[in-house]
Amino acid sequence: WLAAYRKRNQSALPTLSVPLEPFLEQRAAICRSRAPTGLLTSLNMFVQMEGDVLASRLTPDARRAGIILTDLKTAIDKHTDLVKNALPTLKDPISKMAAAHFTNGMFLSLPPHATLTLDTQTLCGLATNVLNLVVLDHNAHLTLNTTIIDDGSLNQHTHIVLGAHSTINYAFIQKASPQAIVFDGLTIEADN
Q1: Could you tell me which residues are beta bridge partners of residue 168?
Q2: CA–CA separation, 123 vs 104, rounded Å?
Q3: Where are the alpha helices (DSSP H) in the chain?
Q4: Residue of 134, 133, 139, 187 lying closest to 163 (CA atoms)
Q5: What three-state secondary structure class fits 146?
Q6: pTM score, two decimals?
Q7: H-helix or E-strand containing 71?
């Protein structure tokens, strides 16, 4: 099912007019050699760099409430049905590229009536297509604070599925160098 999903989204690649290869080659060594700085110290947090998870933390209360926070690769293996149901049908080429070629990302699932404040960081993001999936069941409430710190190029897409009467407060901060190219997409889909 995952291979078929990726293949459906590869149709967008010929429509892209920006060649990413030069950026990926030039920035790879710089980005990977940089030591991560400013990691989050929040109680609930998720930090990723180059598609790799650097830190992930939920409070014991959040875990007891049934909240799932993991990387997307692990979620595909351990929570297959949740991931399958959350994967978006995308229309724009940049988001399709993230869906077709994601290296990893964040998977967050809130059960009914759960509440969470989560801080996330994506560091550098070079040579990386990141797909983040967020699923809120009915009456779930999320405050999501996202920071991207980037010097190269990043294609990140965050897809949020909202159950009935669920809410999200979403804040996004991007810190990029003048030469950075950051493609960021966000879709929010209400589940009736």
Answers
A1: 142
A2: 13
A3: 2-9, 21-33, 60-64, 72-78, 80-86, 93-101
A4: 139
A5: strand
A6: 0.76
A7: strand 68-71
Give the residue carrying structure tokens 């080659």: 25
Which helix (H) or strand (E) is 189 found in, with range?
A: strand 181-190
Radius of gyration of the chain (CA): 16
Cβ atoms of residues 97 and 123 within 8 Å: no
Residues 130, 102: contact at Cβ < 8 Å?
A: yes
CB neighbours (10 Å) of residue 146?
21
Residue at 92: amino acid letter: D
User: Residue 162's closest CA among 91, 108, 102?
Assistant: 108
Instruction: Give the span between the Cα atoms of 123 and 163, in whole angstroms.
Output: 30
In angstroms, what CA-CA distances link 117 with 78, 168, 188?
23, 10, 18
pLDDT tens for the chain, 192 residues long, are 777 777 776 665 555 454 545 544 444 444 444 444 455 567 888 888 766 788 889 999 999 999 999 998 899 999 999 998 888 776 667 667 767 777 788 999 999 999 999 998 877 655 567 788 899 999 999 998 887 776 555 667 788 888 999 999 888 777 665 544 455 555 555 554
- The answer to whether 146 touches 169, Cβ cutoff 8 Å, is no
